[in-house]
Amino acid sequence: MILAGLLLFAIGAVDLVRQFVPASRRWIGYVVSAIVLILIGSFCNAAGYMIAAAAGAAAWLLSMPDRPDRRQGFWPAVVLAVASIASVVVLGDRAPIGWLESPFGRVSPDLAVLAVGVVVFLLESGNVVVRAALAGEHTWKPTSAEGGFKGGRLIGPLERVLAFLLMLVPAYSLLAALLAAKGIVRFPEISKDGETGARAEYFLVGSLVSWAMALGGALLVWWAANTGH
């Protein structure tokens, strides 16, 4: 599972750099991300997996660039999901070099890295995947004149991280309330839909992809925690 954790962390880190660091200084952000990845890999005694994660992050940058018209579609996200699941199911948990204390009790470093990697990925990389899914479905897109669904860039990451945590606690009633609240808040905008139903499709596709990533990440961590060896 250490490979999945490092890979998700590396991809999430480079997407955060692309989003929040000016283009002229991104190389600094990439260097800092690489240093953090090296520190984590060294602490976990996972040099080989660290190199594989760095290569995966580079491939992600090439296949999912800043310009949407140059992206390779939704398939990089599918490949990443398959690789992460395979890493957890096939590789499992290595013999722990020690134990870390957490609100959920003692956890192995591998499991901790996986959980942190999932959270980092859900932040900005989750937005990248949602946009790729919307582009692939050719759904309606809000124009600057319409205003569209404002705040999605911030709401999406917060929603995914909360859903991820509520799944692990578990607090399914609160999770259901969170998902329902989003629909209620967005209802006035969706109700402006015309006969095409394009706004509703845009909302549903984006929301379902976003929720699927959060719930999938939680299930991945849950599986790793309960079947690690």
Keywords:
229 residues, mainly alpha, two-stranded antiparallel ribbon, 8 helices, 2 strands, 72% helix, globular
Task: Describe the model.
This protein is mainly α and 229 residues long. It has one domain (2-227). Helix content is 72%, strand content 3%. The chain has helices at 2-20, 26-43, 47-63, 75-91, 109-137, 152-168, 172-190, 198-227, and strands spanning 100-102, 105-107. It has a two-stranded antiparallel sheet. Helix 2 packs antiparallel against helix 3, helix 4 (75-91) packs parallel to helix 8 (198-227) and helix 5 (109-137) packs antiparallel against helix 8 (198-227). The termini are close together.
Total beta strand runs: 2
* Rg value: 18 Å
What is the count of DSSP helices, taking H or I runs of 4+ residues?
8
Quote the beta fraction: under 5%
Shape: globular
Largest sheet: 2 strands, antiparallel
Point out poorly predicted stretches.
none
Our count of domains comes out at 1
> N-to-C SSE series?
HHHHEEHHHH
What's the average pLDDT? 83
Helix content: over 70%
Strand order of the largest sheet: 1-2
End-to-end C-alpha gap: 10 Å
Which structural class should the secondary elements be placed in? mainly alpha
